[in-house]
Amino acid sequence: MLKITGLNKTYGNGVKAIDSIDLCVKPGKMFGLLGPNGAGKSSLIRTIATLQKPDTGSIYFNDVDILADPAYMRQHLGYLPQEFSVYPDVSAWDLLTHFATLKGVPASKRRETVTNLLGLVHLFDQRDKAVSTYSGGMARRFGIAQALLGDPKIIIVDEPTAGLDLDERHRFNSLLANIGKEVVVILSTHLVEDIGDLCSEMAVIRNGAVALHGEPHKFTADLQGKIWRKEIDEKQLEQVIAGNELLVSRYASGKLVVDVYNNQEPEGFDSISPELQHVYFHIVGSEG
Questions:
Q1: What are the tens digits of pLDDT across the range 39-85?
Q2: Which of 95, 122, 223, 250 has the smallest set of CB atoms within 10 Å of its CB?
Q3: DSSP assignment, residue 161?
Q4: What backbone torsions phi and psi does residue 143 show, to the nearest 5 degrees?
């Protein structure tokens, strides 16, 4: 179990990236960190991964104080950062073998480990190709393979599907969903769909603080009977905003469709089932 209490971090430029965060993440299910770019998700993850120290607060993993003993966390951590760089002209097989050596995988088990991991991420047939030539999705899958080296007990992935097309996103998310059931898995993203598809528990991070924490399905249930949809003309948009909380606006078949939050039924609107995106934009602000 990962337990974070009273965590704070302010950078030298005065930006408060982490603001009094308390979180508890249990093993066996995926935990989502959701928030817009710049909300503080990456700062929190870097702190958990012992890449930077907080100003105040505590982080315990399996009852070990990892701020006092960062080596314990690094021993058990699998980490895929948002920016994952690789050596040019080095094959997936050679690079993963190199990472396995650095991770302390015994020489007697190295070949089997690399074979199994490349098979798990569906890259074994491309093992002799340079990772630098991989597509974005293939590179992210290779990143997961290196994160799984050494049988980690906590896995952190930061914005893993950013920039991927729909097929690669689904393929990558399926891979994440099948990662071990006895480990702590933290998925950090600004994509609401990834959280809804994968995570049974989540926290919304806004301005470095936890704005919402709990189970996604409970949040959507709380908005039942409060989300409304209507097809409008563009000239009606200001009027809609004046009387409602605009959550989502988009074009469908050339028509502007808006979803709004209101405790009472607005005139001419239809009630719709709340989705996680409605919860998110209700907390962090409209995407419209």
A1: 999 999 999 999 999 999 999 999 999 999 999 999 999 999 887 77
A2: 250
A3: T
A4: -60, -40
For range 185-212, the mean pLDDT? 92
In the chain, what are the domains?
A: 2-214 (3.40.50.300), 220-284 (no CATH)
Distance, CA of 112 to CA of 110 (rounded, Å): 6
The full DSSP string for 144-183 is HHHHTTT--SEEEEESTTTT--HHHHHHHHHHHHTS-SSS
- At 91, list the tokens: 């094959």
The burial of 70, by beta-carbon neighbours within 10 Å (0-12 exposed, 13-18 middle, 19 or more buried), is given as middle
- Name 268's Cβ contacts closer than 8 Å, sequence gap at least 6: 230
Tokens coding 100: 């396995």
Tens digits of residue pLDDT in 233-259: 999 999 999 999 999 999 988 889 999
In 3D space, the residue among 11, 17, 6, 18 whose CA is nearest the CA of residue 58 turns out to be 6
**For 110, left (φ over 0), alpha (ψ -120 to 50), or beta?**
alpha
Compute the distance between CA of residue 92 and CA of residue 89 in angstroms, rounded to an integer.
Answer: 10
At CA 18, angle to CA 75 and CA 147, rounded to 5? 25
Q: How far apart are CA 203 and CA 213, in angstroms?
A: 4
